[in-house]
Amino acid sequence: MLRTIVIGSAVSVQGIFVQHLPGNRIAVRVGDRVFAGTPVERGVTAA
């Protein structure tokens, strides 16, 4: 599943979900690298 995470205050990364981590964080894989950060909540789009 494709997920987006925030790393720091202004950097976001989108990749394939890897695992849940402590502290409400997740890990995602982008190519051969794994990044950890806070997941971006899914929003509702306006019609």
Structural description of this entry:
The structure is a single chain. This protein is mainly β and about 45 residues long. It is built from no helices and four strands. The protein has strands at about 1-5, 10-20, 25-30, 35-40. Strands 1-2-3-4 form a four-stranded antiparallel β-barrel. It is globular. The N and C termini lie far apart (about 25 Å).
Keywords:
4-stranded antiparallel β-barrel; 47 residues; 64% strand; globular; mainly beta; single chain
For the biggest sheet, the summary is: 4 strands, antiparallel, barrel
Major sheet: arrangement of strands = 1-2-3-4
Residue share in helix: under 10%
Tally of DSSP helical segments: 0
What is the subunit arrangement here?
A: single chain
For the terminal residues, how far apart are their CA atoms? Answer: 25 Å
Rg is 11 Å
Summarize the helix and strand pattern as letters: EEEE
> What's the average pLDDT?
92
Q: What class do helices, strands and sheet pairing give?
A: mainly beta
Estimated share of beta-strand residues: over 45%
Overall spatial form: globular
Structure summary, number of beta strands:
4
Provide the low-confidence segments as ranges: none
Short description:
The chain is an all-beta fold and 47 residues long. It contains no helices and four strands. It is globular.
